[in-house]
Amino acid sequence: MNFMVALRASVTQRFCSFLFFWPLALIGFPPFYIYMMAGIHLFIAFLHHTEFIGKLGWFEKYFTTPSHHRVHHGVNFPYLDKNFGEFLIIWDKMFGSFAEEKEKVVYGIYDHPHSWNPVRINFHFFIVLWRYAVATPFWWDKIRVWFMPAGWRPRGLAAKRDGRDHA
Length: 167
Fold this sequence. Notes:
Blueprint: H1 11-26, H2 31-48, H3 66-72, H4 90-95, H5 118-135, H6 139-144
């Protein structure tokens, strides 16, 4: 986890950001303010991606800190699907998706792509979900696989080995 991680973004992340900012322009926000907010967001993301900054005391009660964001990127079981907030951590606390950094964070992803191909890496998770949807014998699970949390697997698929999915 280092500052350069903040500067990378997937194709799908940029597309989703576009879908969020485009309506702001349509309802009348000046482009200057939209670009300014995108720049502030990038700067905050830059600060979140470090192990250099430790706990920040009272600030952590309300705002997302590097400690909170490290948890977001962790594959430790207690850290899965936690700390989604970019600016205010109170939303995660309100909706039950908050976890405090208590143990060393292990970074990575489950069902690793085993590739350096940027196209494959950008779409890898969608390919994994597609494989699950095709493989499960239950129609309801073919739909649910697209909306369930990271640790969820459809019924009828082989059990995970060593707690991780393998493609």
